Request: fold
Amino acid sequence: MRELEERLARQEATSEELSQCKEKLEDEVSGLKGDVEGLELHLQKAEQEKQTKDNQIRTLNEEMARQDESISKMQKDKKQMDQTIKQTQEALAAEEDKVNHLNKLKAKLEQNVDEVSIPLPSLKAQYTPPTPTRRNRRVASCRRCEHTRRQS
Reply:
């Protein structure tokens, strides 16, 4: 009987150890379940963040495409404006050439006028009117009143 009691005591001790191990393992399993749930939650958050980042990337790519189109259009407009500016500058240069040419002609004409007008005062100073005769008097009087005709 003693053997049985010893055996029973050993089995109870073993049972007690197994119960303690079981509790430890159950605690460890529940801790691991909590860790797994935390990791699953973290994974869900990471997937949501990934989806958000993917949406942001898509939006930024679309914006870049719009800006590329806008840049392309602006470059085309710039080329057209550069061409227009070039044509305008060429037209302006042609008009300036015309103005310079006309100014030279004007200067020549003014010089010619000055050359022609210089003798005129000296000619007036040298001019002496003819002495009036009977016939000349009648013409002179007609010229003054402008009513009568000159009779020759």
